[in-house]
Amino acid sequence: MNGRFFLLTIGMTLLTMTGSSTPTESETRPRGQNVLDQATLKQAQTGQVDFKSHIKPILETKCAPCHNQEALPDRMSLANHREALRSGTLRGFIIPGQPDVSPLLTRLQSAHTNVQAMPPVGESLTPDEVSLIKRWIRQGAYWPSGADGNLKTLAR
After folding, report:
1. Residue 154: inside a domain, yes or no?
2. Of 78, 73, 75, residue with least CA distance to 116
3. Residue among 85, 90, 131, 89 at smallest CA distance from 108
4. DSSP symbols for 13-48
C-alpha cells in the first residue's frame, strides 16, 4: 500500500510538472492563436516579410489595443511608424536589422514571471508570430507611412 501511494505521488507530481501550462501561459495571459491563416504564415516564413500583410494584423490584434497614445500616454505606441520610432527613453523599441537587441522582441520573448513580458494580459503571441516579427526586424523592419502603416487602436 505504501509503495502505491509513493507511485501515485510521483505520478501526480509529473503530471503537474508536464501539464498544459507553460511559463508563458497563465489565467491572465493564455496561449494565443495565430492571427494569420496557415497559408499566409507559410508564405511569410519563406519570403520577404511584408508589413501590411504579415506584421500589421499581428500588431493590431495583440499589441496596438494597449500600445497607443490614448491607452498609455507617453509610453510605447505602435499606432504608426512615427510613434513607434519615438518610443523608448534611450533608443527605439524596434532596431532594424537587430532583432536580438530590439526591446520589442526581447519583451515578447520574456517569461511570464517577468513583469515586462508582453502582453501581460490577454492572448499571447504564438511562436510563429514572434518568429515572423523577428524575421521582419532582421529584414530591416520596413514600416510604411500613411494608411498602410497606421494601426487600428481599438480598446480590448
Report:
1. no
2. 75
3. 131
4. HHHHHTSS--TT--SSSPPP--SS-HHHHHHHHHSP
Residue bearing the bigger pLDDT, 95 or 4? 95
Q: Is residue 91 part of a domain?
A: yes
pLDDT value of residue 152: 86
> Residue 129 has what pLDDT?
93
- Angle at alpha carbon of residue 68, lines to 66 and 70, rounded to 5°: 95
**Which pLDDT tens digit goes with each residue over 54-81?**
999 999 988 888 887 777 777 778 888 8
**Which residue range is the domain that position 25 belongs to?**
2-149
Q: Which residue has the cell 496561449?
A: 31
Taking each helix axis as running N to C, give the angle between helix 127-138 and helix 38-46, from 0 to 180 degrees, rounded to the nearest 10: 30
Structurally, how many domains does the chain consist of?
Answer: 1
- Per the CB < 8 A criterion, the answer to whether 29 and 120 are in contact is yes
Classify residue 155: in a domain, yes or no. Answer: no
Q: What is the pTM of this model?
A: 0.70
Q: What is the mean pLDDT of residues 4-9?
A: 43
DSSP at 12: H
Which tops the pLDDT comparison, 126 or 70? Answer: 126
Interior CA angle at 44 toward 41 and 49, to 5°? 140
Is 141 contained in some domain?
A: yes
